[in-house]
Design a protein that fits this description.
With 123 residues, this protein is mostly beta strands. Helix content is 5%, strand content 50%. It has one domain: Jelly Rolls (Sandwich). It contains one helix and ten strands, in the order E-E-E-E-E-E-E-E-E-E-H. The chain has a six-stranded antiparallel sheet, with no helix packed on it. Strands 4-9-6-7 form a four-stranded antiparallel sheet, with no helix packed on it. The longest helix is centred in the C-terminal third of the chain and has 6 residues. The protein starts with 10 loop residues before the first strand and ends in a 5-residue tail after the last helix.
Length: 123
């Protein structure tokens, strides 16, 4: 069992209003994010990394560009989005902090669905 304590990971406060704890491992990365009210992250994209974002608490708007068109969608607690490799940003238009996890990985294009659903052995 490996335990990583929050006090032991890098913590960054970005000027645009997001506090991030970075949990970096050999083959994936997890970020715990608190995005301040009325803030917007900078536009960005990833060439190799695939991001999956899960909203823990609050409401966040994702903005992205796809096929030359800008799109947006509101997200709330329990919603999940995969950014793929599209340029994107997130805005918190509410009066409350939004808490979310970001899982970053490099896709292998192999289908592990069956393993993920069945790999549990009772002891």
């Amino acid at each position: 069992m490996k335990i990583t304590k929050a006090v032991d990971v890098p913590h960054v406060h970005k000027p645009e209003g997001t506090d991030i704890h970075y949990y970096l491992f050999k083959d994936y990365e997890v970020h715990y994010n608190d995005q301040a009210p009325h803030t917007t992250q900078i536009w960005h994209h990833h060439e190799k990394v695939w991001e999956t974002l899960y909203i823990i608490e609050g409401e966040l708007t994702v903005h992205w560009r796809e096929s030359g068109e800008e799109k947006s969608q509101g997200l709330s607690t329990g919603d999940l989005i995969e950014t793929e490799r599209n340029p994107h940003t997130f805005s918190n238009d509410s009066d409350d902090i939004v808490r979310f996890l970001v899982i970053k990985r490099i896709p292998s294009n192999k289908d592990f669905t069956n393993v993920l659903k069945t790999d549990k052995v009772l002891d």
